[in-house]
Amino acid sequence: MLPSMAIDHYDKRILAELQANGRISNQELADRIGLSPSPCLRRVRALEDSGIISGYRALLNARALGLDLIAFISIAMDRHTPERFANFDGAVATWPEVLECSLITGRDADYQLKVLVRDMDAYQDLLLRKITRIEGVTGVHSSFVLRKRSVKYV
């Protein structure tokens, strides 16, 4: 378990700046939040060590890569056993189209997948050749993203 950490207004500003630009220099970050570089760096390291900052990544432009369709797929399983879930998790973990896989409650589904594919033909291929062939899948409901907006913590 990660240690808990109290977040103050400087930490919130650091998080907002790093979400906007993870490659910002420590000097620029310190200038923007109103701290000198040394305490700023100590705070960033503390946020990393606590697990609040879990990593830094490059954000890719999906459209520039020819990936235009995002779908959320709700999946129902026939049995709720560790073996069924492990089999499902293992299968979808190998598919590059799957951005997120969540085991969920409160609906008629057991899993929620977020997938990114080229187009409807690629989605159909994923659905018919992969998802519905996993042992135990009994139902699939798809929703397609019309528009998205990023949400940031602050």
TrEMBL record:
MF-aspect GO terms: sequence-specific DNA binding
Single Gene Ontology BP annotation: response to amino acid
Cellular component annotations (GO), alphabetically ordered: cytosol
Keywords, ordered alphabetically: DNA-binding, Transcription, Transcription regulation
Domain HTH asnC-type as annotated: residue spans: 7-68
InterPro entries linked: ArsR-like_HTH, AsnC-type_HTH_dom, Dimeric_a/b-barrel, Tscrpt_reg_AsnC-like, Tscrpt_reg_AsnC/Lrp_C, Tscrpt_reg_HTH_AsnC-type_CS, WH-like_DNA-bd_sf, WH_DNA-bd_sf
Keyword Transcription regulation applies: yes
Keyword Phosphoprotein in record: no
Entry protein name: Transcriptional regulator
Source organism (scientific name): Thiorhodovibrio frisius
Lineage: Bacteria, Pseudomonadati, Pseudomonadota, Gammaproteobacteria, Chromatiales
